[in-house]
Design a protein that fits this description.
mainly beta; zinc ion binding; two-stranded parallel ribbon; BAH_sf; five-stranded mixed beta sheet; SH3 type barrels; chromatin binding; zinc-finger; 30% strand; metal-binding
Length: 132
């Protein structure tokens, strides 16, 4: 969805419902995805560049603000994509916009740094111990 500030990236939302008022005005009911930098706590090292969080923030917008269609994949399906396009995103957390809480509140960690996997970074598995 088109932001009011054209220097910012497009907003990502899930369209829940489309309705017309009968006078040619079309409204969309959306559920917003947040980027990590829009959440309490901000962007962390393990957040991927295409990562978004499904929020509990619902809204009604003019259909004219829709710029196009994108796909929000599960984390697992995103990591299996052969090629990631401009309109591909992934979500592994739900975000409560009023409390700043995440669900799940924990994810698997990898590597000696014990950080969650960032799909933007190459990870190599040790063939001997199968550790990352």
């Amino acid at each position: 969805m088109r932001p009011s500030d054209s220097s910012k990236p497009s907003y990502v939302a899930k369209v829940e419902k489309i309705e017309s008022d009968g006078r040619g005005s079309v409204k969309v009911h959306v559920r917003w995805y947040y980027r990590p930098e829009e959440s309490i706590g901000g962007r962390r090292q393990f957040h991927g560049s295409k990562e978004v969080f499904l929020s509990d923030h619902y809204d009604v917008q003019s259909a004219d603000t829709i710029e196009g269609k994108c796909t929000v994949h599960t984390f697992k399906s995103y990591t299996k994509l052969d090629a990631v396009g401009n309109d591909d995103f992934f979500c592994r957390f739900e975000y409560n916009s009023s409390t700043g809480a995440f669900n799940p509140d924990r994810v698997a960690v990898y590597c000696k740094c014990e950080m969650p996997y960032n799909p933007d970074d190459l990870m190599v598995q040790c063939e001997g111990c199968t550790d990352w």
